[in-house]
Amino acid sequence: MTNTPDFRRSLTQLTANNRSSAYVRAPKQEFCVVVSAASEVTEPHDVDMLPSSRTTVLALDLGTTTGWALRPREGNTAHGFVSFKTQRFEGGGMRYLRFKRWLTELKNISGDIHAVYFEEIRRHAGVDAAHVYGGLMATLTTWCEHHNIPYQGVPVGTIKKHATGKGNAGKDEVIAAMRALGHPVTDDNEADALAILHWAIDTQEV
Known about the structure:
- There is one protein chain.
- The chain is an alpha+beta fold.
- The chain is built from 6 helices and 8 strands.
- An 8-stranded mixed beta sheet has the order 3-2-1-6-5-4-7-8, sandwiched between helices.
């Protein structure tokens, strides 16, 4: 399903609408779609698939810039990051409405989502970041309840230790760890989402 041009085209359109970046991985190939002022598609990278399963798993690093990683049943992966920054003349609640719509569109494109894992943050450096995270998490969990999708928060230290061997690893170290696994990431939010996905696959039997 995820190898088809329609899937890549749909993800490209979805990310373009949210001014973001996405990677779609097909067997032995990873297609990178970077959406900016001018769209650009890079050459495929030779990489391996993640293990296939009967379960479609979505991993999220919640924030104004949300990192995401999706492993459909076939084992082909898609990952990227999307901005939910409030636009000018836009009410504060629109951020969460756009996030909810994005989740639904991603679910429709992938066919279904059977489990959601997200980074669980207990302490934020700033009040605004804490408010955004809380709103996104409330929106996510409500959306999951509505669609009967199991969800689980994963502590930051657990994610970093699984990815790098260090529970206090920095952003660059997580990015490097994901690159070592064959993911050409440059955004730390996207790298965190991939780290969550790998943790779920390796420890949760999904």
